[in-house]
Amino acid sequence: MAVTFRARELGFQALNDAVRETSGDITIEDCYGERFIAASAEGKSITINGTPGNALGCYLNGASIVVNGNAQDAVGDTMNDGTIIVHGSAGDALGYAMRGGVVYIKGNSGYRTGIHMKQYKDKRPVIVVGGKTGSFLGEYVAGGLIVVLGIGQDGAAPVGRFTGTGMHGGQIFLRCETPPNDLPSQVVCTKATQEDVASIDAYIRNYALLFGADAAELTRGTFYVLTPNASNPYKQMYVAN
Amino acid sequence: MAVNYVYPDYEVVRNYDKCINCRACERQCANEAHTYVEEIDKVTSDDAKCVNCHRCVSLCPTRALKIVKTDHTFKTNASWSATNINEVYKQAETGGVLLSSMGNPNPFPIYWDKMLLNASQVTNPSIDPLREPMETRVFLGAKSQEIRRDKNGRLIDDTSPHLTLSMPVMFSAMSYGSISYNAHESLARASKELGIFYNTGEGGLHEDFYIYGGNTVVQVASGRFGVHKGYLDAAAAVEIKMGQGAKPGIGGHLPGVKIGEDVSRTRMIPVGADAISPAPHHDIYSIEDLRQLVFSLKEATAYSKPVIVKIAAVHNVAAIASGVARSGADIIAIDGFRGGTGAAPTRIRDNVGIPIELALASVDARLRSEGIRDRVSVVAAGSIRNSADVVKAIALGADAVYIATAAVLALGCHLCRTCNLGNCNWGIATQRPELVKRLNPDVGYKRLVNLMTAWKHEIEEMMGGMGINSIESLKGNRLMLRGVGLNEKELEVLGIKHAGE
């Protein structure tokens, strides 16, 4: 059964109450920045027409969300499971401490994308961004996968500054001709092999399918893969006192 | 062989007349300070390995052991104490940042000890708590701003979610990982029996302890370890950790070697992976951002439980607390600079932050002056040592206090301040199974219940003496306090008169 809510009439709290009490397919119309939509939601699928506010899908626990529009900050904060698809761009702190599930962003994302991402057992979070991200991409990343496809970037590194600061796990794939020139010493950057690219092929195909891009062309580009530097780990040298 | 510059602070003294070579000390010491030497048929000790935790002393059947402070000394120098000199040696040797455990041990002023309580004489008679009912229950959370009635004149109950405590004390945040499974079990069971709360810290909640969820505060810190829907749903309240008194401005880093199978499950990270929680939440740069996290947690829990924001007591704590009170938080926990820790850089622990007594007094005064004191409850933490400290904290304006050092002392901790080594001989700050099992949770929880029960009686007696029969009438009642040996400024900040005034 499909249910439709009009966000603008309800305001964020009533809207979220209504979403919490409803299972199955939900459509949210007239969305103008209402926050916390689908917080910790599970077992429902939500289509949002408009622009959801901050913390869309925070603590998401298995629900699926499609946004026909842009999303704002903190999409998928501490997300545990589920899917978020944004047919537009997303703001800062996308996927903060995400532990599971998949996020696809058609366009760009802001600062601090995917920071603190971690993986656990069968849970391996994935963020795919079509365009570019802001600075501090993958800061403190402990696990999971971030793919930035660099569409429209003419081969330039599709990131801001300080990518991977404090990275101590996981993988970041960047589709570009030249990798970022300011990577910290905790990060190793290598040109992706065919096997590396094959390992993210399913996500690229999904991206292409969702947003109407050419998967073969995306896969043909050069990728760089960022991983933690095992010989120079992120840690402080201590002496017991 | 490299020269070792550092002479041990403490010496193991063994009375060989009493020692029966049972080797209990050798078996008990995880630091391997004791060794049986077959050739001489004697147990010997290496003072350098001793951390002065008293495990061997307590278990020696003939009381043949004691630990004494060494009288080995440098030339006396008021500026260059042995501590200062030895710390230089350690850093010159290793190039490392000094790492310590438990609270600041240095002789800063302890304001609890410079405040005295009132008692009734002649008029306003004191109350005998054994004969008269005394109310020690407290409710933590936002208070209703106004009383509203429906069209039939009945009260509309729009009270926001509360924690109900049988007495104004809770066990403060200690993560599973920093302390053991048996320590957590002891805290959880004691909280349930006492009708108070314990706090998971930022290490997640072990699946075995979900049954104590009604007495559990779960913590959300910058690394979000173990935070998921089930964890939030299980708890009675959710605490956002912005800071910790022992290390304001410093994050946590549990090294991968301490992430075993069980700790991995509760933190929800792989075995052997580092657990890094940086000091800042990198999505919080303002009170508005904090408000967003507060409300995201309220939304995720359907506004069914209070949200606590814990901050360290730092210079501008009153202004910060005012912001926190406006962030939608229901409870503010303020952690003073003497608060404990499983590990903190020595320089931070010993030099950053301010005393909880001053912080608490100024926060309470500030919130009152802004007319927002009722929007939040205030919990004071960091060096509450006994029931008198509790009573003084409440008279200064706290709704309740958090204790942790006192709680681990009840479990057998001897404050040897080497939690960071992970070799706790008392089974508290360790994950080594053979050490963890030394702490029997059946005994541990009972000792915590005993401690709190004793404190409750003492709180009632002190209240009764003041002629007060309810914690509510003590809260912020600074007339019940007088300072001794404090200067004008200190009295002004504390908002109390000097003794004799």
Overview of the molecule:
The complex is a heterodimer of chains A (241) and B (501). Helices cover 15% and strands 30% of the residues of chain A. Chain A is of the alpha/beta class. Chain A has one domain (2-228): 3 Solenoid (Pectate Lyase C-like), CATH 2.160.20.60. The longest helix of chain A has 11 residues, at 201-211. With 501 residues, chain B is an alpha/beta fold. Chain B has 2 domains: 10-96, Alpha-Beta Plaits (2-Layer Sandwich); 138-498, TIM Barrel. Chain B contains 16 helices and 21 strands. Chain B has helices spanning 24-28, 55-59, 82-94, 181-194, 229-234, 261-267, 287-300, 317-325, 346-351, 356-369, 387-396, 405-410, 433-436, 441-465, 471-474, 488-494; strands spanning 10-14, 34-37, 42-45, 65-69, 97-100, 115-117, 138-140, 163-165, 169-171, 198-199, 216-220, 237-241, 252-254, 275-277, 307-312, 331-335, 344-345, 377-381, 400-403, 481-483, 497-498. An 8-stranded parallel beta sheet of chain B has the order 9-19-18-16-15-12-11-10. Chain B has a 3-stranded mixed beta sheet with strand order 6-20-21, with helices on one face. A two-stranded antiparallel ribbon of chain B has the order 1-4. In chain B, strand 20, helix 16 and strand 21 form a beta-alpha-beta unit. The longest helix of chain B is centred in the last third of the chain and has 25 residues, at 441-465. The radius of gyration of chain B is 24 Å and the shape is globular. The relative contact order of chain B is 0.15. The chains are: A alpha/beta (241), B alpha/beta (501). At the A-B interface, helix 2 and strand 12 of A face helix 3, strand 5 and helix 7 of B.
